[in-house]
Amino acid sequence: MLIANARMYAVNASVAAAWRSLLEWTVARADVPCEVIDYPAPAPLPELWARPDVGCVFMCGYPIATAQPPPRILAAPIPAPPRYGNRPVYCTDIIVRADAPLKQLPDILGRRFAFTTLDSQSGYQAPRRLLAPFARDRGGQLFEATIGPLVTPRRVVEAIVSGEADAGPLDSYFHDLLRRHEPALAAQLRTIATTSMTPIPALVGAPRLADAYAERLTAALLEVADVDALAPVRATLLLHGFAAVGGQDYATLRDGARASDEAGYSLLA
Which residues are CB-contacts of 222 (< 8 A; sequence separation ≥ 6)? Predict the structure, then answer.
């Protein structure tokens, strides 16, 4: 029996239920022996990704780019909001409290910056790449303190709303889901900068997932956009459908991290 999970984008209980419905449809359509499991935060995602029974689990793009052996990439979501241009991409929104005096990216320098984990693209590597030019000019030290690892995007949001941190990174698709399903919480945040678009986290299987299973799961995911019965689920998830992607798409994330290193900004600091 394989496992499936969508914790990365399970913003709250209702969104988690929609992801469960989508994954249950997918594994049934693919005729693959796969159980949709719960894996609530703060359980570490790298331990989930390392399981040999992973059949259809969301994995962050930077770990996809650096994992050895690499996972079997099945498909990546195409978020529905217009900013994604009907492509399997996302970005990082740099957020502050809505009532903070901070207006643009240089204003956060010398403040407290939150992060999720070092191996997160949206929660660490993308902001590191965005901030590297500032770090080069300031000797690599940008912040009064870095707050983390906070593990999840929601904890970054909570740290900023509570005043524990002044700014932080937020996965843009997570942010869009938060705006839709928790508008009161999202209204307490303001975006002051946005990174470039990069490949979005994908659904993957374990490296040794059988070819037949991987092919059938990918085929099922590519059908999601056209299944009328899934229209309410897609609406809940702000999801157009899924796209076929490969390891070469995620290599750009490894290259971005290397460029930050070469600029002398090896760690958010």
Answer: 75, 241, 242, 243, 244
